[in-house]
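Hi L.,

As promised, Ig-like domain-containing protein:
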Amino acid sequence: VIGPDHPVTAIMGEDIILPCHLSPKMSAENMEVRWFRSEFTSFVHLYQHGQDQYGQQMPEYHGRTELLKAGIVDGNVALGIVNIRLSDEGQYRCFVQDGVFYEEAVLELKVAASGSAPHISVEGHQDGGIRVVCQSARWYPEPEVLWRNLKGQPLSASTKTKSEEERSLFEIRNSIIITENSNKNLSCAIRNTHLNQEKESVTFYISGKLQTELAKFTVIGPRDPVTAVLGQEAVLPCLLSPQMSAANMEVRWFRSEFASFVHLYRGGKDQYDGQMPEYWRRTELLKAGLTDGNVPLRIPNIRLSDEGQYHCFVQEDTFYEETVLELRVAGLGSAPLISVEGHQDGGIRVVCRSAGWYPEPVVLWKDLNGRHLPSLYETTSRVDNNLFETETAIIITEQSNQNLSCCFRNAILNQEKESAVYIAGQLPSKSHVDLTTTRNKTKYRKTRTEMSVVDIS
């Protein structure tokens, strides 16, 4: 039994496959395949007597595991785990038994989480200069913080603090002292060492002489990404602290280029000269709370191109501050369409299709008890509008469960659409079957699913 000789890395909230196979190549269809952590009897997943067993499955893995059976005749017994959690991190054993002979492989799963975009702020005087602080949250494991000048050369930080949030994710706060003699153009980047990836750094400029007084205000945005649904509107929050009126300040929302803005409020009114063409007349600075320092931006009719980072920049006279926030865009596709498309491998091939998803959806076949069923294949493509279209198929035989559902899930929205089908009667032996499902009903979150009934008697 062979597994990978290096750790497998998974991103929190996403899905992962733990590889495992037999050598030499042989069928494992009639063997026992047991995935477990430390206790043999309390398993992560168990395949025995030709089918999955759930009696003693660890509760934290219920409904989250799938033995990928597409390659089981070749000895591939990989395990799929959906919606990865921090508690999933650690060692896994892939145990395979044939008669009285058994073997196992041990592999390690590492979990990583990529946190929020870095937020830079000025927080007062220290040691003859001003203290600039970089903050970010929701990282795992503890990330590296890198200060650099605009040439990419590293700068040394003065202090570093970390704390663990409720879900054991790390929140980082790192500061650097800038003096008259030091480089006043710098950036802060946060890097995940497991993924070898870093969040896009936020560039901070201090022009002229160092300010002789403490910061007048701080600009605050949400730490977590803002999620918007395609075609609907998004409101990007931003406010001043302490509370004060921004009615006579400049409020500038921009992406990567300061001069080419998403929205600009200056001189007590909105300005449109220089606005990015793709946002022309699509933005609104919500002014109801302007006198209290609330400067949120409303964007209607959200598009895929709107996804990414936004800077909320506020200036009064020569003093300015900004925050950076992230907008995620999600598309909820069409209701899954189930159809029967002929004979294959001693059964009938049932196909499920859906389009209009973003990002790529998680697709699952399930029996009516909610247990996952292995698919025959799954293909995903991006169509002209850059949304995802997915097709998946499953083989139903006389021995398999003929009541099943096809579920498409958007991981960002944590919403799903599901259609169910019931195959009534005995499977025919004809070479051609002309069948149509009568109804497909959509399920949102935990709404009851109605079933299509296909009578093939």
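The radius of gyration is 27 Å.

Thanks again for sending the construct details.

K.
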